[in-house]
Amino acid sequence: MKRPTMKDVARAAGVSPMTVSRVVSGEAGVAPETAARVGQAVRKLGYQRNDNARSLRQKNLGTSTIGLVVDDLANPFYALMARSVEDEAHRRGHVVLVGSTNDEPQREREVIAAFTARQVDGLIIVPTIGGHGFLKRPMAGGTQVVCVDRPARGLAVDTVTVDNRAAAGRAVTHLLGHGHTRIAYLGDRFDIWTQAERYAGYLDALAAHGIPEDPALVRHELRSHPQARDALAVLRTLPDPPTALFTSNDLITLGVLDGLDHPAPLALVGFDDLPLGERLTPPLTVVSQDPVALGGTAANLLFSRIAGDRSAPRSVVLLTRFVVRGSGAMRTAGG
Amino acid sequence: MKRPTMKDVARAAGVSPMTVSRVVSGEAGVAPETAARVGQAVRKLGYQRNDNARSLRQKNLGTSTIGLVVDDLANPFYALMARSVEDEAHRRGHVVLVGSTNDEPQREREVIAAFTARQVDGLIIVPTIGGHGFLKRPMAGGTQVVCVDRPARGLAVDTVTVDNRAAAGRAVTHLLGHGHTRIAYLGDRFDIWTQAERYAGYLDALAAHGIPEDPALVRHELRSHPQARDALAVLRTLPDPPTALFTSNDLITLGVLDGLDHPAPLALVGFDDLPLGERLTPPLTVVSQDPVALGGTAANLLFSRIAGDRSAPRSVVLLTRFVVRGSGAMRTAGG
């Protein structure tokens, strides 16, 4: 059977070939209903973006691109992930477009629109909390998408995450095992998937020990080092303050370290390892993720999709390591 | 006067317009002599890459790109710099292509070739030690280049660096001021410009105090945490071992911290601050660079060049801060 052409899709959808071209390239200026009709025709006919055009482009440009969209490239966790993606892409002769979203859906849309307009072969994204319907059009045109760190709501694509909930549960259980019952949770925005999972793990561990949640000990929405430091200061003023802390990412851990020892030391387990964490007094006990493995796994999935793998979307969960060094074993004041 | 066209350049150089197009786009496959002839014609006629073609491309693609080429994106210093460049580019509607070189000239050429083939409007590069003659062709075609962190040998372009030599001298003078005369230098590859500058600063400070250099105390070529750790172990076995260390980048500082306290503590001043450096025992005294300012300054220079600034190349030197926290004030064994 002859491969369907752009003209075939145009005929089936009742639009011009130029409109089809616009839709599959992810360009703006096509009415949503029209785009949907084109998308249906693309799927029905099994159309793939013109390989001649693509190889011509590759010949002209010497190389292809993939896009990488992270929360914040300045965060060492995402920087390590980015380097890992870049190494995989370089090995395969691709170059990487990179962008940060700050977890802002608007910036995410802008960055991804810029990337798809440049006809990236694929996208690796750390999705924001926003909807991702806008990705359906470039995906219908053949752009491959893989999510890493978090799934994207309503998007059935390959996704690589870690065992956030179980790992957080283990961390809090470690604190409970050292006699703590007043354990504070300090987290980032609750609507970020990883944060919701880690908070659920915190609640799991408390529930397994028959300890009811005390909302006074739970702080969400900590977006920066100073906000985390200030949240700890407030927790310290409670009539029945915490004796231990679970911090749900590296920035928050850095922030609470500022107020940890005064007036009295508190036990601490953090999610994410920190450089020099093992050299603190006491050394830091953490849940350690491997951003290089996350990035490498996501890149491998993406390149197998680009190579033509059309099997059902996969969800890959990588295991974290729980690194016990001492900071979670501080005794309670009365213990 | 009419603006010169690609055809005018082709006529002046005695080649086809297609060859001119190849040269100004930085594509491979043009003989060096031919490319040089085209470059001369471009400069003589004051030809600029076809604005119609460019605006057509911008209309098609919705956005322009700049390329960022760093040593290692996984190094927090370069990650912060990259985020800063990305923010400036995003603000101006550009997207960023990013690549790491590992300080390998071959990989640098590959990455930059991939970027120029994709018609980036400009490049911000942390140049490797390799030659950069290969950049002259895309530059003749209108691609703007700015160097950051280090100058590129033989390339007269805007360059943003810090006061490496003076800052290293001040750091070593601090150790001398605390009575140390056996001060070891632990550095990365000597052929990297920043490293040579910092080593020169080390020698300046010793000379100003009338202390001759002892080659046994100088270790170059430390490329990793383990290599730095092992180099310190060797220094410790000297008949007259060092009582203080100057480490010339963050990775080397991390490496020597492993062996710093045993069998006896040594004084230490490092180039580059580290997260949590202020929480070590003793807290780390460092030369602190501002990678956000480096990246932001480089991006501003690049975008002013893209906007048409053709003034003479600038060399911008940003000042570092010397952050005294304690680790440089350890007394000598006999002191």
Automatic annotation (TrEMBL), chains A, B:
One of its GO terms (molecular function) is DNA-binding transcription factor activity. It holds the Pfam family Peripla_BP_3. Signal peptide: none annotated. InterPro entries: HTH_LacI, LacI/GalR-like_sensor, Lambda_DNA-bd_dom_sf, Peripla_BP_I. Transmembrane segments: none annotated. This is Transcriptional regulator, LacI family. Keywords: DNA-binding, Transcription, Transcription regulation.
